[in-house]
Specification:
154 residues, globular, mainly alpha, single chain
C-alpha cells in the first residue's frame, strides 16, 4: 500500500436540486442492488458491520415508506384527539414547506427552516426513484458525469 501525503481530492456539491436528485437516485438504486445481490449483508452472523449496515443503509432506504406510514397513521388517528390532530398538522406543514421551498428555488432554500424539509423530501423522492430504477432494471451500471456550470469571468 502506498501513501502520498501531497495527494488531494476535490468533490463539488451538486449545483442544483435536479443534479442532487439524479445523484441520490443513482446511489439509492445501487444500494437496492447491493442488498439484493449481497444477501449476506442481512445476516448479523456473517456481517460484522450488521448494525451499521442496517442503521445507515437499510433504514435510509425504508424512510419513504416510514414517512408514508406515519402520514397514514396520523390521518387515521387525527379524529381521536387533539395531539394526533396537531401531529398530522405538523407533518402536513412540513411537507408544505418542503414543496414551497422546492418550487421557490435557491433563494428560499437557503433558509434552514425551508432547506431541511426540502432536503429530506428530495432524498425520499430520490429513494423512490432509485427503487423504481432497481425494480425495472433501468439503472445504468456506468457512471455518468454531471456537467458543472462554469463561472463567467467578472
Amino acid at each position: 500500500m502506498l501513501f502520498e501525503p501531497q495527494a488531494r481530492a476535490y468533490d463539488r456539491a451538486s449545483a442544483t436540486a435536479r443534479q442532487e436528485l439524479a445523484r441520490k437516485a443513482r446511489t439509492s438504486a445501487g444500494s437496492f442492488q447491493l442488498f439484493a445481490r449481497e444477501r449476506w449483508l442481512w445476516s448479523p452472523r456473517r456481517n460484522r458491520l450488521w448494525f451499521e449496515t442496517m442503521s445507515h443503509k437499510a433504514l435510509r432506504l425504508a424512510l419513504p415508506l416510514l414517512h408514508a406510514a406515519l402520514l397514514v397513521a396520523a390521518a387515521g388517528a387525527a379524529s381521536s384527539g387533539r395531539l394526533y390532530a396537531w401531529a398530522l398538522g405538523a407533518q402536513l406543514l412540513f411537507y408544505g414547506i418542503a414543496l414551497a421551498g422546492f418550487a421557490a428555488g435557491q433563494r428560499l432554500r437557503r433558509l434552514p427552516l425551508v432547506s431541511v424539509p426540502c432536503a429530506i423530501c428530495l432524498l425520499n423522492w430520490a429513494t423512490i426513484l432509485g427503487f423504481l430504477r432497481f425494480l425495472t432494471n433501468r439503472q445504468q451500471v456506468t457512471w455518468e458525469r454531471i456537467a458543472v456550470p462554469t463561472r463567467q469571468p467578472t
